[in-house]
Amino acid sequence: MTGIHQLLFSNFSTGAVVDGVVVIQTFTGNSTWTCPTGVTSVDYLVVAGGGSGGTTGGGGGAGGFRTGTGLSVTAGTDYSITVGGGGTNPEANSLGTNGDDSIFSTITSTGGGAGHCNTNPAPGQDGGSGGGAGTTGGVVFSGGSGNTPSTTPSQGNNGGSNSGTAPAYGGGGGGGAGTNPAAVGGNGSSTNGGNGGSGQTSSLIGVATTYSGGGGGTAYNQTGNGGSGGAGGGGDGKGGGIAGDAGTANTGGGAGAGGFSGGHKKGGNGGSGIVILKYTVPTSSPLIFKGTTKWVCPTGVSSVDYLVVAGGGGGGNTGTSNYGRSGGGGAGGFRTGTGLSVTSGTEYTITVGAGGIGDGPTNGVGVAGEISSAFSIESAGGGAGGNSSLDIGSKRNGGSGGGAPRNQTGGSGNTPSVSPSQGNDGGDAFGPSNPGPGDNASGGGGAGAVGQDAQPSSGGAGGNGTASSITGASVTYAGGGGGGTDTSHPGGSGGTGGGGAGGNNSSPYQGVNGTANTGGGGGGQGDNIAPGRGGHGGSGIVVITMNA
Fold this sequence. Notes:
This protein is mainly β. The chain has strands at 10-17, 20-27, 31-34, 41-47, 65-72, 78-82, 102-104, 107-109, 200-202, 209-211, 274-281, 287-289, 293-296, 303-309, 334-341, 347-351, 372-374, 377-379, 466-468, 475-477, 541-547.
């Protein structure tokens, strides 16, 4: 993924109720949730990333598991959602890492503790659930502590201890999040690695699903006798010359430990976490998507009104050359409409494009924005802003075209062509308005207007965007980025709708970023300072309202 970090979530489903629709949103990566109008509380599940398995050691502890109902939220507020990654064990003969925390609002689930290793035997690591103890001859260590830090109800359990007795020198299993005795990580024995603790089941998505199982411990050189991973995504531990199994993605499962045969084998990586929200929303309330999702059309809904805005293009930059005056990024494609037919019970993928970066390639051209799509509607990413010396003109084409560097033409908008048009061309940087070689670049196109040509006394302004009232308020999206200049002239202003301004040769040198979730293009870099940076394009957005 390039550009502004793309936000990811999936399995968005709804079912009809008397006073609205019940929405279930499942986030499998970091994102932002905008609380819809009419929503005052949510039910939730927050599962952290599982811990890594130990190198010839203990199983990884499961990610913390927390669930509840009626958590207060405020309509119109953006809530950051963090989905923890699994812990990693990058190489043999090393201690792996704990899983990462998952967070929604005031709820934090702690990453699972890593299983310890043989080369530096010690207790398992503490975490949401504790990691298993590493294997070693003659010395017994305890598993890591679960429910660390302490929550009520408990978010997890302790890991198991190692055996210390030949021939298996069994490592402890990682703790799981379950509520029965089997949820504590199993102790290793002289013949087997300890089993991972069992996880806990949730029916929040309408189907009973188990999460947060612990990873199995090693059986050292006893092939086939590693501990089993706990139900809920825990990875199996291994013996002999076999690496441990990974925890299952988006379950928070702890990873299995690796075995030994002529060398230590590394443990697996922990499974990533997950966040799920369930709430009731009035049918008339808009649903705002700031990351990729799957949406199941609810019963009784036959059509949607929509806004689909792609990511804006990055402004041009100097790269490794000493040539400034770079073009502004084009705005992301803007498409809107009403009464688009949908089918109840059908799952639709909704993709929200990231903005293109303004400082990536060495040739000085920005990066185009990424596509946004919903149903049959696809909006193209904004074209990249060009550089004055090293440029690839085709990269400036897009939803709206990127601005041109000196002596060149702007990128084409509405590429590919759709009706109504999704955007406009970027401005030009030669001709009567900018005679001679020129020191100013043009603006990127916007959804409502072409980018301004480079001016004798400034960079060209980004084209203005277009307003939409689908959210209940008039908001302008998809403005183009302003062109840069390497003189004391001002850089071009960004177009209304999130376009970033261009830089010049004093301050700011760099182009200004497009505004997130508007599809605005980034401003072009100004002065010829290498390496430099154009503004990053703003990420896109998708908004729908449902019609019976």
